[in-house]
Amino acid sequence: MPIFTPLLVGFTLVVGYFVTTFARLLLRNFRSPLRALRGPPPSSFFMGHLREMHNQENNDIVARWEAQYGKTFVYRGFVGGYRLMTSDPVTVAHILGHAYEYPKPDFITDTLANMVAGNEGLLTSDGKVHKKQRRILTPAFSASNVKSLTPVFWAKAVELRDIWQNLLRRDAEAQDPQSNSTFSTSVDGGPSSAESTGLHARQRTEEKAHAEADDAKTRNRSLSSVTVDALDWLARATLDVIGDAGFGYHFNSLAAAARRSSEPEAAPGAAGYQKSEENELARAFAAIFDAAQQFHIMTILLIWFPALRIIGRRKGKTEKEARATMRRIGLELIEERMAAIAAEPSSASGGSPEKAAPDKQSASLAGRDLLSVLLRSNLSSNPDQRLSRNEILCQVSSFLAAGHETTASALTWTLYALARAPAVQAQLRTHLRSIPVSSSSSSPPTVLFERIARLPYLECVVREALRLHAPVCSTMRVATADDVVPVSEPYVDRAGQLRDCVRVRRGDIMTIPFQAMNRAPDVWGADAREFRPERWAAAVDGAESDEGESAEGDGDREGTTGAGARAWKRKMPGLWSNLMTFGNGNAISGHRACIGYRFSLVEMKIFLFVLLRDLEFSINPSVEIEKRINIVTRPLVKSESDKGNQMPLRIRYIPSESS
Ligand code: HEM
User: Fold this and answer.
1) Residue 148 lies in a domain
2) What one-character DSSP code corresponds to residue 41?
3) Structural domain span for residue 370
4) Concatenated DSSP letters for 543-607?
5) Residue 62 lies in a domain
6) Which of 92, 132, 417, 563 could disulfide-pair with 531, CB 3.0 to 4.6 Å?
7) What pTM was computed for the model?
8) Which residue puts its alpha carbon closest to atom 1 of ligand 1?
9) Closest Cα to atom 27, ligand 1: which residue?
10) Which pLDDT tens digit goes with each residue over 172-224?
11) Ligand 1: which of 122, 285, 577, 594 to mutate, judged by most atoms within 8 Å of the beta carbon?
């Protein structure tokens, strides 16, 4: 047989595969009932609107399309594929509320599975397996368990504040070597004011001279400012947090960068990122996460030509090693925790540490990390309903992937919004300083955390920042069966007819634009695009904080007046605070909303409390910040896009009046 015969057969098979897949795609477009909907004409035959959508946070495309076509329309994907874009609250509630009938499309699940080094975690599982995992994981994210993790958030917030103050100290000393700067930090209880009474005149003069010198130092210190890449530092802080609070693992990522930045040649304010100096697990996670986030033409081809995944999924050596490291460390962590649980007096019943050791409840955080609580919950489940070792391992990397960059992005955008609104920032600081912090910063009392969690203006700021800067700007779903989807108000189709539902066909893809919904002018008002925490005042005033336990799927829809209530009246179907920021779900037919939302809210509030009391954030007005979407929305300096994601903020020590 001539050599070219098998080659010819192979070639014909490959060409045949591409031609039939391509034809199937075109046929599917042709048969989709979504063709009947109005929408913008595609700007490219192959890429449809994918490029515009990738830049949606900067070009405002979704809002512009909505203004033209309403809340229900189609845009185009690869080779002109019809995709439903809906911000109609009833349609969104239907799709997200039937999570198992409308799962994430394969290409999203695939990217997430690559990111978390496996497809058995909560982010990627589906149907009964997802329901089982969600039930077992829920106790780890309960309001009471998250509250018990607050000291971890506190310790990391204080560590970051101290690092930034050290940068300021170095800067002040560089300007004035005599200054020998020290910063009194208000979270340590604040400086004591030494009143000199009954001293004779000379002593009083000396005191005055010292006081004036101190004042001058304080002035110097408060004049000194450095620019920090807030995104990088906060990503380190939130990585440390999820390591400690998630599974008792110390990444020490902040400390590594602080060491580096204190070296004489380091640029002031730089986190000093040196991959080789990072801890082993941080390096492994970054390698996997970075690889999964890379977007190129192959990413699109893999979506539509699944056979290519055999080649496309091949991992490089670094990625393989990173996966092996994650697996090894993950298994070690699971073993350690299992051993600790076995040693608990009530382990036989799978009880909680509260039940096991009431006398030691508040003394230690041990046993309260997400992994320990999940393992305990697993043990107390029916043996045939338990998570396998691999499933548990995948949850560890899922917590890392889902819980660290999201909160870092949320905090970064909050500081950015505050830097752009100095009056709001000053007002927030006044409110934060109204809470006395009398105990040592290392172990503040629970009552302080309660007060921070319930501080109305802080709540308003957090809600407003998460409304305006949702870290996850949209999500996608695919129909697993033909369906008739309800709408809240009729819309006009391509033929000019009024329609009161959307017909979808199995395989149709839909996009839910969380960020655009959070900014809809008909819900939030004409000033929807402005950062105005006051819009929440009426809803927050006197309302219970979001830390209250809520049944899975019920969400926290408190607030009876103001913007929150207006959104709720219009049935904005968000899990928390009538916002779409954390998605939504339904306990009965599939709850895929963020399981970690309470964790991030408490973490955000503690960080803002600690950082903003003593530091002022500003931004050079000439710096233009853009948003880049790569699963999470991150900032970029427009004129320095080659430098990648960054958020340069200027920080300044801001002494309280008593300093
Ligand atoms: C500000 C911070 C956060 C934001 C904005 C956020 C946002 C979201 C959103 C929008 C979803 C739903 C995605 C979809 O429907 O396609 C989600 C799911 C999820 N989030 Fe978060 N998240 C945050 C923090 C966290 C944290 C701290 C954790 C864990 C420690 C976490 C763990 C998860 C997990 C495991 C899921 C998948 C849930 C499921 O499918 O059942 N998230 N998150």
Assistant:
1) yes
2) P
3) 140-171+226-262+278-341+362-471+575-653
4) PPPTTS---TTT-B---SSHHHHHHHHTT---SBTTBSTT---BTTTB--S-TTHHHHHHHHHHH
5) no
6) 417
7) 0.87
8) 407
9) 403
10) 888 777 666 666 666 653 333 333 333 344 444 555 555 555 555 555 566 68
11) 594
Dihedral sign from CA coordinates of 643, 649, 652, 656: negative
* Residue 617 covered by a domain: yes
Of all atoms in ligand 1, which is nearest to the CA of residue 471?
Answer: 5
Ligand 1 centroid to Cα of residue 122, in Å, is 10
- In this structure, is residue 336 part of a structural domain? yes
Structure tokens at 536: 């929440």
- Distance in Å, CA 595 to ligand 1 centroid: 6
- Closest residue by Cα to atom 39, ligand 1, is 592
Residue 34 dihedral angles phi and psi, to the nearest 5°: -65, -20
CA of 593 to the centre of ligand 1 (A): 7
Nearest residue (by CA) to ligand 1, atom 11, is 594
Residues with CB under 6 A from ligand 1: 122-123, 134, 398-399, 402-403, 406-407, 410, 471-472, 475, 581-583, 592-596, 599-600
Residue 501 labeled ligand binder? no
Q: Which H helix or E strand runs over 430?
A: helix 422-433
CB 380, CB 138: distance < 8 Å: no
φ, ψ of residue 75 in degrees (nearest 5): -120, 180
The domain that holds 310 is classified in CATH as 1.10.630.10
**Maximum C-alpha span of the chain:** 114
**How many structural domains is the chain composed of?**
1
